[in-house]
Amino acid sequence: MKNVYQIRNEQGGYCVLPSDYAMQEIKNPNRVGIVVYLYYEEGMEAYLKYLKKLPQGVDVMLISSNENVLERMKQMVLPGINVQIVSKINRGRDVAAFLVTAKEYVQSHEYVAFLHDKKEKYQLYEEDIFLWAHSMWDNTVRCEEYISNVIHMFDCNRELGLALPVIDIGKYMMIGFQYPHVGWMENYKNTKRLSEELHLNCNLEKEFPPISYGTVFWCRTKALKKLLDKNWRYEDFQEEPMDDDGTISHAIERIFPYVAQDAGFKTCMIMNDVFASGYLGKLHATMDKLWSKAREIAGIYYPYQISNDEDRSRLKTFCQENSQIYIYGAGKIGGACYTYMRKIVGEPVTGFIDKNKHGQTKNGLPIVTLEEVQAMKDAGIIVAVGAALMGEVLEEFKELQIKKYITYLLDFSNTEPKDNAK
Fold this sequence. Notes:
There is one protein chain. It is elongated, with a radius of gyration of 28 Å. It has helices at 4-10, 44-51, 67-75, 93-101, 103-107, 126-141, 144-156, 180-184, 188-197, 225-229, 248-262, 273-298, 304-307, 309-320, 332-345, 370-374, 387-399; strands spanning 14-17, 32-37, 59-64, 82-87, 111-116, 160-165, 217-220, 266-272, 324-328, 351-353, 361-362, 365-368, 379-383, 405-407. The protein has 17 helices and 14 strands. The chain has an 8-stranded mixed β-sheet with strand order 1-8-6-7-5-2-3-4, sandwiched between helices. Strands 11-12-10-9-13-14 form a 6-stranded mixed β-sheet. The protein is 42% helix and 16% strand. By secondary structure, the chain is an alpha/beta fold.
């Protein structure tokens, strides 16, 4: 069984839905419930405005532990929408609101959206947390048409159990692009323990980061049955002030996709088309900078080098079989190869081969001719040139009967130019 992180990435688990028109109106809207937990008075209006854009006929439950927020909720007028306003004790925050306060309400609906507010305690991250919260809400309940399209997506895909909003890229945070340690933080053990308590049949491995952050989502309630069926109580959650990490709430935040997997359902990431346009532009600009740094710092020239352990092993073995290693090519690819060998493969390089730069140095190493290396007894050559020159270089090696070489980039043996005749 594959991990939900692998499945999402390998099977195209991202959906962009239109927000300016509905592909189909919601059939029987009372089967759809929207649960909202709000606590902070500051910024409350930014969240409440979304409630005015909900489709008529859906059910809404508003929950708070703050009396002032409850009063403001009672003042809202939402025509055509069945609204319940519920007070809860100030324990367990949003997660307890979903699993304890709204449990029966959630179980009585086929589809449920859950949302809550966020507030950052550190000023440095305020802007990022705003982007995080705004993108979660905007990609969950942007407007009536968008919500209709989310429900249509669930209706058309009976295997879909959970839809998580894509979170925007901030200045300090790239939620959703976490390596395992950062994604789990101090929560792998408690998430694993919870999965065992729920008897989940899922692939929950530490080497793969979680894919759910923030506890905002759309769900097919059957997909979360095991989690909802557990007899949760407010006492199961830490009293205030709650720790920033490592609590049962943080474990639950990360376990939703695994619960869905156990129930036989898939998880996807959703975003509206307006958000997607700006997000892809921001992602492209970020990737440009990251890719430039990857080449500069690690010598990574092509995408496959990021995760191909076999390729690193191939180069490492070649280096260990030869006491001296020379890189054929002292250009950009040769320079990238040098950095890659030192930083990623972890093997030293003796020098470079380039007849046009003979006698010069690159990265503090001598640049020699091919003939000089041929005269050495135990020297191996890593060919680091582009595809346009590779065929010519390998043909030269064949004529000179040079056999102790390997290509820096993956198999360039098939480098004959294609027939360009029309």
